[in-house]
Design a protein that fits this description.
The chain has helices at residues 2-24, 29-59, 77-99, 103-119; strands at residues 62-67, 70-75. It has 4 helices and 2 strands, in the order ααββαα.
Length: 121
């Protein structure tokens, strides 16, 4: 059973990584190459966040914790992991998005190239 779940997780990771590669392919080639590791980590975090979310959905945000004769309500451990990872995931996504060329950049580069072509005639 665990092997099947691991294979499913690997499949989900590969699918997410491919999705991110398609989204960020418009980056200039050197930036894209530099961003490969960040893309892989972002894909991993997305899959892990989905898994943590499933645990939180099934178990709830609060759990009963017993320590000896005492019983306490506490935040489910998956919640802390989820909150920490979602911040890092958001930061990675922002870094990746900042690496994409903006439409203004493309227009400015096109104008510059047109100017260079006119000057070289």
């Amino acid at each position: 059973m665990a092997i099947c779940e691991d294979m499913e997780k690997v499949r989900r990771y590969k699918r997410e990584k491919a999705r991110l590669r398609r989204i960020f392919k418009p980056m200039e080639p050197m930036r894209f190459k530099a961003a490969e590791g960040l893309l892989a980590e972002t894909a991993f975090m997305r899959v892990a966040l989905e898994d943590l979310r499933a645990v939180i959905d099934s178990d709830g945000i609060i759990e009963m914790f017993e320590q000896g004769p005492n019983r306490y309500l506490r935040q489910h451990p998956a919640v802390k992991s989820y909150l920490s990872m979602v911040q890092r995931y958001t930061a990675c996504c922002k870094l990746l998005l900042d690496m994409l060329p903006t439409p203004d950049q493309d227009a400015a580069e096109d104008e510059l190239m047109a100017f260079v072509r006119r000057q070289s005639r």
